[in-house]
Amino acid sequence: MEVEFKSSIYNVSIILQILSSNCTSTMHLKVIVSLGSTTVEQNATAANTGMKLYSWDEIIEMGKENTLDPLPPKPLDICTIMYTSGTRGDPKGVVLTHECIATYVTGTDLFMNQFEDKMTTDDVYLSFLPLAHILDRTIEEYFFHHGASVGYYQGDIHALRDDLMELKPTLFAGVPRVFEKVYEGVLKALSELLPHRRMIFNALYRYKLHWMRLGYSHKTASPLADFLAFRKVKDRLGGRVRLIISGGAPLSPDVEEFLRVTSCAYLIQGYGLTETCGVSTVGFPDDMSLVGTVGVTSAYVEVRLEEVPELEYDPLATPSRGEVCLRGKTIFTEYYKNPELTKEVMIDGWFHTGDIGEMRPDGVLKIIDRKKNIFKLSQGEYVAVEYLENTYKVSPIVEDIWVYGDSLKSVLVAVTTPHEDSTQRWAQANGHQGSFYDLCKLEDLKKYILQELKKVAETNKLRGFEHIKGIVVDPLPFDVERDLVTPTMKKKRAQMLKFYQSDIGKVYQNISAERKR
Questions:
Q1: pLDDT in tens, 473-511
Q2: Cβ proximity of 415 and 444 under 8 Å
Q3: Which domains, and CATH codes, for the chain?
Q4: Residue 276 · residue 252 · CB < 8 Å
Q5: What DSSP designation does 175 have?
Q6: Each residue of 304-324: pLDDT tens digit?
């Protein structure tokens, strides 16, 4: 069995805290290993509390004195237990076997061998996603298998650019929010250019995009455009990136197209879960018809769609839509010590993901919704919340949005975090002054955001009950510190409801009062 350790060097005071009788959380602890040396006082305290304390040197000597022959794992032995992000209740322990991991690595090899650019031991991956994120874990497994390098960021997401400049990775993987930030940064830099330089950039963009849509690779579509303009975008990612992978949530088609053209690197989207040992479908580099999709079925995986009648999703209709179900050797064995939940999602050998997919006739999959993130309004209409959030996020004034509907109410409300630059431009155009925080308190800004959300709803032909009727404006992003999102930036909806409930209640009261006038 493979065991992962998160280690740190305990100093004297920390070890004494652990050994203290006041530390009730260590009641089941039997052994402590210090990565440094230990003191007589620490050893005595450990002995008195029934624990054994070892220094690192002692552990090394014990290993030398008690050598064992290697014991290769069997395919169905547990390799690791990965914990889900816990967006709905407690995190679940996903049991992955050695067969799961080995099959994933073999399948990735088959996928990568299709392309001209081969992976070498000179490749470098920058790991900044949490180690508990299956995308990061599986990429690292693949890199170690090939003898390539993995570098770990310094722990501050705001210093990620510094890490990119220092490590200069050849592969960069992240969740959509990271790439949205890159996109926004480039657009901001463009807005500050002289008009004629901005015009040249846009002309080069359209030219290269035209040839890529005709089937040319990103390398051959326009080397001149890359040299004159787009290499600067590549430099923002360290200058050596050859492959960009986006996963964890759908990437906006606008952002994906922009990065495919300007990053001077291959870009692919994939789809998978912790329970599927990572990628289960994956796109192809340089195929522009796959923009906005998560590609085709990976090696050793089967995909099917299952009907969801309450949401009117039918795999036999046109387009073919339904819950994504997966089967294959990369699927997890069970939820650790949770057989009831395992039976709930594993039916006749198929893992029911809870995600709603749309399958094109050519086998390309697009994730459009989340089955569990639905609720019913008072008039009996079902609302697919993630679909609406992804739709409304295209508005330039919206940095992020959380849509909510009370089952006792007939309308939707939302909490929005405005885009700071767009908010400042709106303020200047409308005679408002003040800090971003002050602007977010203005009723005029709320009205403007609601107008923009209405435009998005009408453009996308959303049904009347899917329109946002009231909002809360929060200048702060949804963050881990307030327990509003997971480390992988997925919304913790129960926590968000608890955090914003008072403000949401006031919004509903205002809507009710306006209707009575």
A1: 999 999 888 989 887 778 888 789 999 999 999 999 998
A2: no
A3: 12-65 (no CATH), 80-370 (3.40.50.12780), 374-516 (3.30.300.30)
A4: no
A5: -
A6: 999 988 778 899 999 999 999
